[in-house]
Amino acid sequence: MPVRVALIGMGRMGHALDALAVERGCAVVARLDAVAMVKGLSLHDLAQAQVAIDFTTPESAIDNAVDCLRLGVPVVIGTTGWSARIAELERAVHEFRCAALWSPNFSIGVQLFIAIAADAARRARRLSAFDAHIVETHHVAKLDAPSGTALVIAQQVAGGLARAVPITSVRTGSVPGTHEIIFDAPFEQIRLVHEARDRRVFADGALAAARWLSTAERPTLYTMQDVLADGETGA
Asked: Alpha-carbon distance 199 to 122, whole Å?
């Protein structure tokens, strides 16, 4: 049976999710835009969804998520730029005993990229000649800079190198998302790049997360790493 999904936010990502949902084993039962959300979410709005997916704005995402949890609907949060409120989200998960899942990036390839970056940084730490820098490029409409993904990558690389790693953010055109790690030494350079060619890669991962979350047994705050640990890829 398809998983019943409520889409919160009908911008570009909402439409990408809507277009891919049936192919990925999900049935969209609610499509909520900013007008529908202005007074908060209700059970009527969510239309008996088994799980909700939020791609809205940093200002509204956590309020939307808390509404879903209060109503007993697990929620996947694809919006970024709200990390200062993560403690509020954790409290709501605990209070309402309902699961949530968040990730700065739902691309399966990005998750692998982060793991590769962490390993490369640990190896580079033993070679004092190498320094590191991260460059992230996104479309002009992306609100947060640095991106949530770049912050996670920087955290992993900094942990491996045992020193801070700078981030350069570029906002231009319609770029879905490119993240580059540069390991630079006096006479050579290593460049690791992940490039999203289509925003459907994020929709694919978010739908995989929604299917997984709809069957999660523990009321806790999950990440994409939990999904991948169970072998869910969205295919």
From this structure: 31
Domain boundaries, the chain: 3-102+199-229, 108-196
Instruction: List the CATH code of the domain at 108-196.
Output: 3.30.360.10
Q: What is the pLDDT of residues 153-182, one digit of tens each?
A: 999 999 999 999 999 999 999 999 999 999
Residue range 9-13: mean pLDDT, rounded: 92
For this structure, is 15 an active site residue?
Answer: no
What pLDDT does residue 213 have?
Answer: 97
User: Which of 138, 139, 179, 194 is the catalytic position?
Assistant: 138
Alpha-carbon span 226 to 115, nearest angstrom = 14
Mean pLDDT of the chain: 92
39 is known as an active-site residue: no
* Residue 59 burial class via C-beta count within 10 angstroms: exposed 0-12, middle 13-18, buried 19 and up: exposed
The single residue of 44, 142, 179, 194 carrying the catalytic annotation is 142
- Strand-strand pairing, 188-196 and 177-185: antiparallel
